[in-house]
Amino acid sequence: MRKTVIAGNWKMNKTPAEAETFIAELATKVKNPACEVVICAPFVDLDAVVKAAKGSVIKVGAENMHFEDKGAFTGEVSADMLVSMGVEYVIIGHSERREYFAESDCTVNKKAIKALEKGLKPIICVGETLSQRESGITNEFVAMQTKLALKNISKSDAAKVTIAYEPIWAIGTGVTATVEQAEEVCGVIRATLSQIYDDATAQSITIQYGGSMNAKNADDLLKMENIDGGLIGGASLVVDDFCTIINYCG
Question: What pTM was computed for the model?
Fold first, then answer.
């Protein structure tokens, strides 16, 4: 059975005090979920989130990391730093990182390899732009991104990876891919994983949908065969909305 993972991506939101309050409230409402619950918080919030989540079912993730262990990389954070804080997950290659900070398929792959080496669980993001979808190359493009992200990653390590399908045209826009569109591309990702590794490995890997999943559409999306959770943006900033999505798992 594949693990269902509901992960919140707070992006650049919440101070440490706000984060602590949020986690304390969330922990009282999420006691025995049918999925893994993860909060991926900004670097400055991680210490507060780890401490607030202690003793609860909530796992903690970072929103990014560097692929080098140390060095002259001003403003960056290493995998060792995250592990030392008690962080378990890390988002890699989010479309906003690719678009605004020039991350490439190459750096995504390097980060994924380093995260796995250090014992972190990477959530690797893939997804197409509106122009790519309109050009009819969605499936080919997402398959290519998946292959490049997993280059030189072994079958045993791949089993620790989560893939998040993020149609870029649906992130933060309020527009969501239809259930059929989301399921089709997640199916393409799973077929690609089968090509890279084998059917058993492909069937074991969690694939999330990450394009504006919210409390209203999560139920239908999570019923799809190839959608094993969500990478949640705006809805993860509101405790009740996030809990609603979590409760649809099962």
Answer: 0.96
**CA-to-CA separations, 145 to 32, 42, 97, 141, 165, in angstroms, rounded:** 35, 25, 15, 6, 11
Specify whether 94 is catalytic: yes
Q: Which residue has tokens 């890997």?
A: 205
48 touches 73 (CB < 8 A): no
pLDDT tens string 141-158: 999 999 999 999 999 999
Residue the block writes with tokens 């304390």: 24
Q: Name the nearest CA neighbour of 182 among 169, 173, 193, 195.
A: 169
Q: What does the alpha-carbon distance between residue 183 and residue 221 come to, in Å, rounded to a whole number?
A: 8
Active site residue 140: no
Tens digits of residue pLDDT in 211-224: 889 999 999 999 99
What are the angstrom distances between the C-alpha of 17 and each of 13, 21, 24, 40, 114? 12, 6, 11, 16, 31
Residue from 36, 94, 96, 183 carrying the catalytic annotation: 94
Q: Which two tokens stand for residue 104?
A: 């490439």
